[in-house]
Task: structure prediction
Amino acid sequence: MIIFLCAYFISSKVAKYFAFKVVQPTDRGIVIVLMIQVFTVISQVALASILGVYHSYGFDTQFIPHYLITYCRSFMIALPVQLFIVGAMARYLFRVLFSSTNGVEEEKIEKELLEEGFAE
Result:
């Protein structure tokens, strides 16, 4: 539950902020989506590693070395899984579920998302 709340309130905003420092809203949609995914993984792994190290070792003198090791191990697994498996499945699922949207409505939705900074 803690990680979900961190993802919803912290990581999503941080990821979009940094992603749009790297890409422009006019870039291809997939590039924007991938950058948001990369920065989401970076921020989520950072927050989850703090929680994981605290639960495993507590806050002791070795917290920073334990955190760095945990972060690196988690990041090596989380990034490829997000980019190649989970993210791809989610994009496919949404494409199938929402394919009935006509082109005019889709352009309107995309324009609104671009204006709000949630371009995908």
Notes: The chain has a mean pLDDT of 85. DSSP finds four helices and no strands in the chain. Residues 63-97 form the longest helix (35 residues). The radius of gyration is 17 Å.
